[in-house]
């Protein structure tokens, strides 16, 4: 059985309106392939700095997709 780490995919892309359709398509494709999409837009925790949150999410994912 796969662990959350094994199915985690960190999606790193802009979240502005120009990229919204691409972001939604990427999330759908990742999910449809049986993986769990993750990104910096996950539930906000006011006590956690943004960069620390991003680093934590990346550590929790085996894979990553980047727009660069």
Uncertain spans: none
Helix-residue proportion: 25-40%
| Number of H/I helices | 3
The largest sheet, given as strand count, sense and whether it forms a barrel, is: 3 strands, parallel
Number of E strands: 3
Strand order of the largest sheet: 2-1-3
Number of domains: 1
Q: For the terminal residues, how far apart are their CA atoms?
A: 32 Å
Sheet-strand content, in percent, reads 15-25%
The ordered H/E elements are HEHEHE
Q: Rg from C-alpha positions? A: 12 Å
Structural class: alpha/beta
How does the overall form come out from the CA principal axes?
globular
Arithmetic mean pLDDT: 91
Describe the protein:
The chain is of the alpha/beta class. The chain has one domain. The protein is 40% helix and 18% strand. A three-stranded parallel sheet has the order 2-1-3. The chain is globular, with a radius of gyration of 12 Å. The mean pLDDT is 91.
Give the gist of this structure.
The protein has 68 residues and is of the alpha/beta class.
SSE layout and pairings?
Blueprint: H1 4-7, E1 8-12, H2 20-32, E2 36-38, H3 50-59, E3 63-66
Parallel strand pairs: 1-2, 1-3
Spell out the key features of this protein.
alpha/beta; 3-stranded parallel β-sheet; 40% helix; 68 residues
């Amino acid at each position: 059985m796969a662990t959350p780490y094994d199915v985690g995919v960190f999606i790193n892309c802009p979240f502005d309106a120009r990229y919204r359709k691409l972001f939604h398509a990427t999330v759908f494709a990742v999910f449809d392939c049986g993986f769990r999409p993750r990104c910096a837009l996950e539930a906000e925790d006011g006590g956690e700095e943004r960069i620390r949150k991003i680093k934590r999410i990346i550590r929790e994912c085996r894979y990553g997709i980047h727009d660069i």
